[in-house]
Amino acid sequence: MIRISSIQLFSLILAFEVGSTTLFALGIGAKQDAWIVILLAFLVGLCLLVVYTQIAKYYPNKNFAEILNDALGSKVAKPLLFLFALYFLSVATHNFYEFGALINMTALPRTPLLVILYLFIFVVIYILSLGFEVLARTAEILVPYLLLFLIATYIIMVLSGNFDLGHLLPVLGDGIKPLLREVHTVIAFPFGEMVLFLMFWHYVREQQAIRKVAVLSVSVSTLLLITSLIVIISVLGPELAANTEIPLLETLISVNIANIITNLDSIGVFIIFIGGFFKTALHFFGSCLAIKWILQVKNHTWIVSLLGLLLPLISVLRFNGLDDQRWKGLEGVIYSILLFSFLPVLLLLLIIIKRKISSKGD
To answer: Which residue spans traverse the membrane (predicted)?
Structure first.
């Protein structure tokens, strides 16, 4: 069986969690206190992560279908797995369309969106057909560059002359209500999305290290997200950050150091590409794995190829533009993520109860 190392798991989670989230001002409805929203959401996300990793601890080397079968029985497990497949596919189309639209807007304005999406999905199909280990190796190679670009971006923006920490004041100037209104959105995106990794824990070579690696990776991701948000607000101000479609890109465009360091939007495009790739590929593969387990087939290649070729069409038919995609995300996707991210809590409770009953019977 394919196995991935702890460093590869760390890279996958980091790429997945950071994804395209650094491009946007998460929790900006709380204005200058948006970074506190991320911190609160992170604490809830850590609790969820403990649940996800505890399930893996109870069932080392077991895939999610086997866990559901053991805990709930096949009559409940298969329909639930099918719902997870639909959910992962829904989020995949959401991320996929967003990636294509952002690339279309920033880098390839004259290229038809469908062409961009098909070029992108061909790469995804090729890598996934080679196996999950190849995707993990790809993350291991690309994540250091992603971190380098992000850190370099933060340093350049701090030195640009537009950086003003005064935009972060006053702390809790509007009270705690704006934080509470925003926190559920950030719990869902990106922390609740970690429910996807229930599909991949069985691929990890060092099963006992899963929780340690996952917590470390999510913590580093959170630090990057908070840093990104502080930089964006400090450069643009909370009002402009809230009303800009891609705040990080707008921030990069505004950078001008001695007329030498300018036009840094290409860095933003690189971040969009890396983030969009792993967000889409992992959600898409999670959906394909669920379908594979439901159908009880050995090879997932034909599922990846068939569903992959349909994904651009599904995405284009589902969304009428980036504004429509964002609206549907806020109205529907956020709540579906919250629903599926908290379902494993009930699953873990059932597993614990079942084990206690079983131990008493022995």
So the answer is: 7-28, 34-55, 76-93, 113-135, 142-163, 183-201, 213-237, 257-278, 299-321, 333-353
Determine contact, residues 249/106, Cβ cutoff 8 Å.
yes
CA dist 291 and 289 (Å) reads 5
By three-state DSSP, how is residue 303 classified?
A: helix
**362 part of a folded domain:** no
Q: What is the mean pLDDT of the chain?
A: 89
Q: Phi and psi dihedrals of 98, rounded to 5?
A: -60, -45
- For 176-200, letters b (16+ CB in 10 Å) and e give eebbeebbbbbbbbbbbbbbbbbbb
Q: Examine residue 224 and state whether it is found in any structural domain, yes or no.
A: yes
Supply φ then ψ for residue 197, to 5 degrees: -75, -5
Report pLDDT for 263.
Answer: 64
Specify if 276 maps to a domain. Answer: yes
CB of 329 within 8 A of CB of 97? Answer: no
Each residue's pLDDT tens digit, 88-124: 999 999 989 988 988 888 778 899 999 999 999 999 9
* Domain enclosing residue 14, as ranges: 6-356
DSSP one-letter code for 194: G
Q: Is residue 361 part of a domain?
A: no
